[in-house]
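S1.2 Input.
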Amino acid sequence: MDEGAGTWFLLPSSSMEPNAILSSIPSAFQTPRPMTPPQEDFLPKLQYKHSSFQAQITNLTATLKSTRRESQDDEKLFSGPKRTYTPRRTLTQKLDSLFDFLTGPGMSWTIGDLMFNLFRFKDDTFSPSARHGQDVEKFLSGRCQHHPGMVLNA
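S1.3 Output.
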């Protein structure tokens, strides 16, 4: 708490003259009084606060240095070898990848199998996912780049 906080001033009684009343109230316009040197017990308190602040500054500096070190270590962890650019694949290469996937292990489908199951309705053995239904509906309604009319004209 600041020194001087909570200081009380005695107000003069009403029997005093007006000039005496005004002179007893401290004013911001009065000339400042010279400062008195601090008391002897004030210096150890100031030195204690100074050493406390010095300790806090030392701790904060150490924390900042360790944080910088950790962030540099993190950069080393996440900076792997540079990525190489893979050129775009042609339409033929993309279709070949699709055919390889369809005929590969685990699938063994033909294009007819893909088309049949893509447009198949729900029955006792098959229930299409929500994504499947949305994608087929989008294609059939013409809301994608290619629509059924383009397939028939191709």
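S1.4 Remarks. The longest helix spans residues 42-78.
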